[in-house]
């Protein structure tokens, strides 16, 4: 059974019946999928949900369902993924997010991602978490910046799963190391770091 993560306004929970259909509606929304190669068909969405489930089974963490209690039972997903392709920064664990449009502009993605980072660094003992997106996806990069992640132009890369020259091909990479997060967390008073398990 996957862990639940909570922060003041958000709950990150395991997937349950009904979430796949809500996710299909989200991944069929052209605005949500603007920075992906295409919207997802119901079959491709089912494959995505199955892969998310397999990732949890294999690693014990993954893309949790974001719920806004009392407001939105399915607000999207936020979580951690092992990067499944080779690049100059792999092997690596990525933090990612995709929210239904009614959940945009309320700080939910950043709040959920903070809870995920706390879990990654404090509970799972990760040393670094990365994030990446296509260069034009400024909303996603703004989340990375709010989390205190940092980028360097020389780490931009061409996504190996997209054809060279594809308009979404060039990606920016953001990184956050555990020690930086600890300093930030102490400064923000967000969460006292717990001792790491050996
Ligand atoms: C990327 C994505 C998750 C960002 O969502 P977002 O709503 O912009 O990000 P947040 O949830 O952190 O919200 C921040 C905004 O909420 C506002 N906000 C409102 N109330 C707030 C509150 N109580 N606390 C914090 N921020 C609040 C902030 O001012 C900010 O507004 P701004 O964008 O006008 O500056 C969303 O656009 C999305 O799902 N996109 C499609 C999928 C996608 O591209 N995923 C990434 C692929 S790599």
Automatic annotation (TrEMBL):
It holds the Pfam family Acetyltransf_3. It comes from the Bacteria. InterPro entries: Acyl_CoA_acyltransferase, GNAT_dom, N-acetyltransferase. Residues 10-179 form the N-acetyltransferase domain. Gene3D superfamilies: 3.40.630.30. This is GNAT family acetyltransferase. It comes from Herbaspirillum hiltneri N3. The lineage of its organism: Bacteria, Pseudomonadati, Pseudomonadota, Betaproteobacteria, Burkholderiales.
